[in-house]
């Protein structure tokens, strides 16, 4: 019995142990299943819809808050660039401690992490001033709310604590598993610096053209830009600024002459007579830094303005008398008009005589000379009749003879301007400076990121001088002019106001604002933004000559490799495009047009890091191909020859912006077709038009297949624009059958008429 009980005892012990082990393992199993639960949404469809393309922007609606205000209004923008909907959530606004340094950008970088802040990042105390709710944001859209806070409820804004404060906006989604929290930063100026604090500020005001102007401005485009340009000149006068002028504006006004838009001559006269310091940019605001990166030996220049002056007209003026012959020669007069300093970025044409400029243009245009410059060479000069009055005496103008167009040198001359250059911000290197110095440019506008500055912003740089713009201030003004939304632009204004207030409070001896050239051209009223910027009491707008002097050491920058290579490709493709000039009645038009397009592609507006230069270069290459295929055969697959002789229509298309004159050569591929005329010369194709040429053809067979080989070439036959093949189906039996059918139908109709008349008469006879 003991032997039997012992196994039972062991069995009981084993069963009890198993039960205890099972009970002990239950909590551990439950804990293991609960631990990964928070990560489960990552493997669910909901987790795959997490919104990652969110951007939060906050800005005060007014860049400066004063004690006279009763409330502060803040704009908060939630932008959703993802493909999922951002959930609704809460917005919290908080203020940090007052700034004590010169810059607010470092605090902005530290405060805007783009994610939920860590414990270390939130160590600085913040005072919550408001909370609000924001609705869900659909994909590809944005949501903007305005949060109003009474100034009496902001404890930090006291009479003894004026200054600049960091503002933080935090977005917390209602479902944190769908969208992470975001934090945005903006500076807020509360009453500004101390009452006695101020900072001298110089402003470089650009007069540039919008991106829609790909070459020279048309009269309509120039007319649209005039109000904005006038307003910017007004601002430059009141702020003692320096004008940086795109020479295309000057050349267009002079090139159109009396045909220029209303107000254009007055603007030009104002620029020429005003005491405002100015300098010419390169045409199209071309970037000297990019040209230096391509190892150019000299600055890129236009090759003429004939495609503009063809639209112009000018009043006849009496030449100035001289001691030698009583009248100034054309070369001397043009040389006087072309007295621009050789160093201006306006171009080498202003540094040479009119004869040399014209000869260069003629040589570059294949020796073609405009016989009637006043009309662009579209019409020949009328022959002189012996009965006409005698030529006018020296010193008198002929009222019946249209005035000639100004020379290229006279069109681009700017003799009273500074010899200045302005590379793309932060991209100049020693090659850039050498290239500008080689062109005689001794004043260079550089960003503070491109130099190490000691002293004031009017600095010496090697054997020349420089105006050093404040990069933080430039970026803020650029955002204020080019921001994608009203909130973005308000943020730029707040950043600029904060930078100026902090600089004044810190005793900075001087700043220079380099107004963004693209922003000044695209904004409807850039002068209003700039006026608000320099209006506060702590901003002292001064002339650049009144700024303190300093010294600058270049910190070389560089253009992006992608941009440099794409510009190289465009430059190398220019000769291929200019080959098409052989088709034009005025070949020099295409030369000057294409070079101006190329200069515009070099523009500094496309050098900014946030610009898609590859897309711009792609569009440029597409237009190049359109110009190369400017005169072409309109595709016709087949023609039908139904008779013994006919005229086969050939359609020609001219997509060029200039009139063309071409030759069409036609040759049959077999003896089935006989062409009485195979060459059609001097076919005139007006710009952007189509023309039909009728080719007479005789068939030698009743039916069959043949084709015509087509060649479109220049009048001299040296350049072939297009070739093609037109298949022709010959079926003269069709004509025979058609004639027989028509004859039969006519005979039947005639017979039926006779039969009907006879029958009608017989029906009337008994009655009579």
Distance between the termini: 157 Å
Q: How much beta, percentage-wise?
A: 15-25%
Total helices: the number is 20
Structural class: alpha/beta
Shape: elongated
What share of the residues lie within helices?
25-40%
The largest sheet has its strands arranged as 12-13-16-15-19-14
Major sheet: size, sense and barrel closure? 6 strands, mixed
Strand count: 28
Radius of gyration, whole Å: 39 Å
The protein's oligomeric status is: single chain
Give the mean pLDDT: 82
The low-confidence runs, each spanning 5 or more residues with pLDDT under 50, are 1-7, 9-16, 18-48, 111-122, 320-390
InterPro entries: DUF6049
Keywords: Membrane, Signal, Transmembrane, Transmembrane helix
Protein name: DUF6049 family protein
Organism: Leucobacter albus
How would you characterize the overall build of this protein?
By secondary structure, the protein is α/β, with parallel strands linked by helices. The chain has 20 helices and 28 strands. The strands form 6 sheets. Strands 12-13-16-15-19-14 form a 6-stranded mixed beta sheet. A 5-stranded mixed beta sheet has the order 2-8-7-4-5. The radius of gyration is 39 Å and the shape is elongated. Mean pLDDT is 82; it is low at 1-7, 9-16, 18-48, 111-122 and 320-390. It holds the Pfam family DUF6049.
Short description:
With 768 residues, the chain is an alpha/beta fold. 33% of the residues lie in helices and 24% in strands. Mean pLDDT is 82; it is low at 1-7, 9-16, 18-48, 111-122 and 320-390.
List keywords for this structure.
single chain, 768 residues, alpha/beta, 6-stranded mixed β-sheet, 20 helices, 24% strand, elongated
């Amino acid at each position: 019995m003991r032997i039997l009980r012992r196994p039972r005892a062991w069995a009981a012990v084993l069963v009890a142990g198993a039960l205890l082990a099972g009970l002990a393992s239950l909590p551990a199993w439950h804990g293991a299943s609960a631990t990964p639960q928070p990560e489960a949404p990552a493997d669910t469809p909901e987790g795959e819809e997490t919104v990652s393309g969110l951007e939060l922007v906050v800005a005060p609606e007014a860049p400066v808050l004063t004690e006279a205000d009763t409330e502060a209004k803040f704009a908060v923008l939630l932008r959703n660039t993802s493909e999922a909907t951002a959930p609704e959530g809460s917005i919290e606004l908080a203020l940090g401690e007052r700034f004590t340094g010169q810059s607010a950008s470092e605090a902005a970088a530290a405060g805007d992490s783009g994610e939920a802040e860590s414990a270390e990042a939130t160590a600085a105390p913040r005072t919550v001033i408001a909370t609000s709710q924001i609705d869900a944001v659909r994909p590809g859209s944005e949501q903007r709310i305005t949060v109003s806070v009474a100034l009496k409820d902001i404890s930090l804004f006291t009479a003894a604590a004026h200054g600049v404060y960091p503002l933080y906006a935090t977005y917390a989604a209602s479902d944190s598993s769908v969208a992470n929290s975001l934090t945005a930063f903006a500076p807020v100026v509360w009453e500004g610096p101390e009452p006695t604090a101020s900072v001298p500020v110089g402003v470089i005001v650009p007069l540039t053209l919008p991106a829609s102007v790909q070459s020279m401005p048309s009269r309509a485009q120039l007319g649209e830009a005039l109000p904005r340009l006038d307003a910017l000149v007004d601002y430059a006068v009141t702020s003692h600024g320096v004008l940086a002028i795109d020479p295309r504006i000057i050349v267009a006004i002079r090139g159109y002459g009396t045909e220029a838009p209303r107000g254009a001559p007055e603007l030009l006269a104002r620029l020429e007579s005003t005491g405002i310091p100015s300098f010419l940019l390169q045409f199209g605001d071309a970037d000297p830094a990019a040209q230096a990166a391509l190892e150019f030996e000299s600055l890129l220049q236009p090759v003429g303005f004939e495609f503009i002056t063809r639209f112009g007209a000018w009043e006849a003026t009496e030449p100035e008398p001289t001691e030698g012959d009583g009248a100034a020669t054309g070369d001397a007069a043009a040389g006087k008009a072309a007295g621009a300093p050789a160093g201006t970025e306006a171009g080498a044409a202003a540094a040479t005589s009119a004869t040399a400029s014209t000869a260069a243009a003629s040589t570059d245009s294949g020796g073609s000379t405009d016989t009637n410059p006043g009309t662009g060479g579209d019409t020949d000069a009328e022959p002189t009749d012996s009965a006409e009055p005698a030529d006018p005496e020296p010193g008198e103008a002929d009222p019946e003879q249209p005035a000639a167009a100004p020379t290229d040198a006279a069109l681009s001359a700017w003799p009273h301007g500074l010899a200045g250059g302005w590379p793309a911000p932060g991209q100049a290197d020693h090659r850039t400076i050498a290239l500008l110095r080689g062109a005689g440019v001794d004043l260079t506008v550089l960003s503070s990121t491109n130099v190490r500055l000691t002293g004031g912003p009017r600095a010496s740089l090697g054997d020349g001088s420089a105006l050093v713009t404040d990069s933080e201030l430039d970026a803020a003004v650029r955002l204020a002019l080019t921001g994608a939304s009203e909130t973005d632009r308000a943020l730029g204004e707040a950043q600029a106001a904060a930078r100026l207030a902090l600089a004044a409070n810190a005793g900075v001896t001087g700043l220079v604002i380099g107004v963004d050239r693209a922003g000044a051209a695209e904004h409807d009223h850039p002068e209003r933004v700039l006026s608000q910027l320099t209006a506060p009491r702590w901003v002292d707008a001064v002339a650049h000559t009144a700024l303190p002097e300093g010294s600058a050491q270049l910190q070389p920058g560089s253009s992006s490799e992608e941009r440099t290579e794409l510009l190289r490709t465009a430059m190398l493709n220019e000769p291929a495009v200019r080959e098409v000039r052989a088709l034009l009645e005025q070949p020099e038009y295409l030369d000057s047009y294409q070079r101006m397009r190329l200069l515009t592609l070099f523009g500094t507006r496309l050098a900014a890091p946030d610009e898609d230069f590859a897309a711009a270069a792609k569009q440029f290459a597409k237009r190049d191909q359109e110009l190369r295929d400017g005169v072409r055969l309109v595709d016709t697959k087949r023609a039908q020859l139904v008779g013994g002789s006919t005229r086969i229509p050939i359609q020609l298309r001219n997509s060029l912006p200039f009139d063309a004159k071409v030759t069409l050569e036609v040759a049959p591929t077999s003896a089935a077709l006989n062409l009485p005329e195979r060459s059609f010369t001097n076919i005139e194709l007006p710009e952007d038009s189509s023309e039909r040429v009728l080719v007479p053809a005789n068939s030698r067979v009743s039916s069959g297949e043949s084709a015509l080989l087509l060649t479109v070439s220049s009048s001299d036959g040296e350049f072939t624009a297009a070739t093609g093949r037109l298949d022709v189906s010959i079926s003269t039996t069709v004509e025979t059958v058609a004639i027989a059918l028509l004859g039969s139908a006519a005979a039947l109709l005639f017979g039926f008429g006779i039969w009907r008349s006879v029958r009608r008469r017989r029906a009337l006879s008994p009655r009579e």
